[in-house]
Amino acid sequence: MTKEKIEELISQLTLQEIIDMIHGNGCFCTKGVERLGIPPFVTSDGPRGVRKDFENDAFKELGLSYDYVSYLPCNTALAATWNRELAYATGKLLGKEARGRGKDMILAPGINIMRTPLCGRSFEYMGEDPYLVSEMVVPVVQGIEENDVSSCVKHFAVNNQETRRLDVDVEVSERALRELYLPGFEAAVKKGKAKGVMGAYNKLRGMHCCHNDYLLIDILRKEWGFEGITVSDWGGVHDTEEALMNGIDMEMSVTNNYDSYYMANPLLELIESGAVEQKTAYAKIDEKVRHILHVMNELHMLDGKRKSGTYNDYQDKAVLRQTARESVVLLKNNNHILPLDKKKIKKLLVVGENANRQHAPGGGSAEIKALYEITPLMGLHMLLGGNTQIEYQPGYFNDDIGNIWANTGESENGQADSLNQDGEKAQSLPSTESKDQSEEKLKHQKEMNEKYLKEALEAAKDADAVIYVGGLTHDYDTEGQDRNDMKLPYEQDRLISELLKVRPDTVVTLVAGSPVDMAAWIDSADTLVYSWYAGMEGGIALAEVLFGDVNPSGHLPESFPVTESDCPAVVLGEFPGGDQVTYGEDIFVGYRYYDTYDVPTAFPFGYGLSYTDFVMTGIRAEVLEDTADHKSVKVSFDISNIGDMAGAAVAQVYVADKYPKVKKADKELKAFEKLYLEPGETREVALILEKDAFSYFDEESHSFQADAGSYMIMLAKNADEVVDVTEVEFTS
Ligand code: GLC
């Protein structure tokens, strides 16, 4: 449909019809205009797959058989692959399944920067570095939207904690906003051509993000040229006039009093009252519906030429398994205990309740009604077959539901209730248990842990090998709350420590969506493997890595601090703050802080081992352009696989300003390549660094600047391991 046709359509819409199109009239949809052939607009969560269907007017699941879907690795797992091709492939799968399930917009991906490891929704996001986020979000968006489905990049912006998420007011410098918190969204919009952006619940500098004109008009529309739809988070609109004037196109919420939404009757009344100059008011609502019709047109919703999509295709399991494989991060492997040898292990002991736990149903709106989910225990059985006896010991007692929103009979509408909590309560599990019930529960848990610990230690004595699978669950990694600390729950520290005493060769694997505190046992462990909520194929992928069918190639997308009190948001800034939270750490988030302030971490950003060894050498740089407006440098280096196993390395390129005019981080990631090399193979790699690789945001000129001067270009295996350095000089 041409722009003229769309304008003609807009001119035919009544005020009421326009109002109906710009606010929800169902949990996940807005009204269409049948007489003009405009369909309803149907959205669905989320980043890990297409969420189950609910009743139209309440978050009460229908419980039918048709909405089991593919369960994709969480966004942190995807980021841990550092594989742009897998980002595209998983985005394509997500978009195909969203179309196949009749959706017009998938509310994904989530890309908020991991400012603190305690953020409950870290698992839904892509880590701490804006460059890695930008490089991974673009192919995800492109993949999704290839299927005539809109992505919806979220949560715009600075939604970096769950505590007081509905109203916390974020104070952050313009420089940190521009250098850290916005680049992923900018890439998604400008490079990815994303058709949807979701406003965040929180405020930025005193104004709710869902109707913040600086974010939604000045930056998103005027600077970035965004032509798609801005959607509020569910219940994120709080003011009718601001919603009219400040750039939100579609108000969604969790209640079914649709006509009372801020952009429903109250907006109609505001316009008809004349409180806003009529011409302006009508221009503003036309703009909203224009964005919606533009996206509908782009999705072929108006011309009958739309892709139909599908879901649960068996051939898609390959990309899910490959993504899960490449997300596994090998953090320790002393004495080459790993990979385990199938031929030598006839009696395997698997300890840890996370070996047996399925995580898809948890996490809040990212929950998934998975067609299936292979747990690590099942993956081990699948891989080893019938000639290996596998004994399972839970090791610790965990009878949590794994979903703080699960309709426990207390609530028909867990998601809606989660918004009814004031900030304080949002910090803890929405428990309806009385105090003595929790004490009773704690006493029972300790008794059971004692029992399970004894049974696990007894079983460990005569096993050929012991694999521990612990970590977190979605009672800790979840929307609606942050963790209070990084400690492993269910008394796992004691269990792991005792297990390592009995079996120092225990293979320790953790399944989690965010960093945990390992200080109690990390020095006693010879092995450590980190696997995320890695989707329906996660359990077999982990098993394949542990037994060497797959060479691990995951790298941490976020720093693992020793403990939460080392985190810059706590040391230099505020977390979680109160009515307001000040990002006092400014740009020094993640490795930008630990590196620059020499604070040791348990494991650094970008870290990941392999079963083979890589050597990266011979970095050299050639300045291609050196003007005030254009700077570019060709960086080359060689990488070799000097081990005896094929594998993939992630070559990371960091840049540092040798004599910065303003305080800068010691180095920043500005390029990376994932390279698969056969044993003995050497590859020359060439990358181009553009001006933005040398730029910082200058608040005085309110623009990015790349100063003349000397820059170091570092070739690294991770943020703590620079293997080669060269320098370039810009004269202008
Ligand atoms: C939730 C989340 C958002 C989700 C939306 C719809 O509260 O913040 O990520 O897409 O509401 O469920």
* The CATH architecture of the largest domain: Alpha-Beta Barrel
The CATH class of the largest domain is Alpha Beta
Shape: globular
Beta fraction = 15-25%
| Terminus-to-terminus distance | 47 Å
Number of domains: 3
**Can you identify the CATH superfamily of the largest domain?**
Glycoside hydrolase, family 3, N-terminal domain
CATH T-level topology of the largest domain: TIM Barrel
Cα Rg: 26 Å
Largest sheet: 6 strands, mixed
What small molecules does the structure contain? alpha-D-glucopyranose
Helix content estimate: 25-40%
Layout of strands and helices, then pairs:
Elements: H1 3-12, H2 15-21, E1 29-30, E2 41-44, H3 75-81, H4 84-100, E3 105-106, H5 130-145, E4 153-156, E5 169-171, H6 174-181, H7 183-190, E6 196-199, E7 203-204, E8 207-208, H8 213-223, E9 229-231, H9 240-245, H10 265-273, H11 278-298, H12 317-327, E10 329-333, E11 347-351, H13 376-384, E12 389-393, H14 414-420, H15 423-426, H16 435-460, E13 465-471, H17 492-502, E14 507-511, E15 527-531, H18 538-546, E16 560-561, H19 568-571, E17 580-582, H20 591-596, E18 601-603, E19 614-626, E20 631-641, E21 647-657, E22 668-677, E23 682-690, E24 696-698, E25 703-705, E26 709-718, E27 721-730
Parallel strand pairs: 2-3, 4-6, 5-7, 5-17, 6-9, 11-12, 11-13, 13-14, 14-15
Antiparallel strand pairs: 1-2, 7-8, 10-15, 16-18, 19-20, 20-23, 21-22, 21-26, 24-25, 26-27
Helix pairs in contact: 1-11, 3-12, 4-5, 5-7, 12-18, 13-18, 16-17
The chain binds alpha-D-glucopyranose.
Alpha-D-glucopyranose binds next to loops.
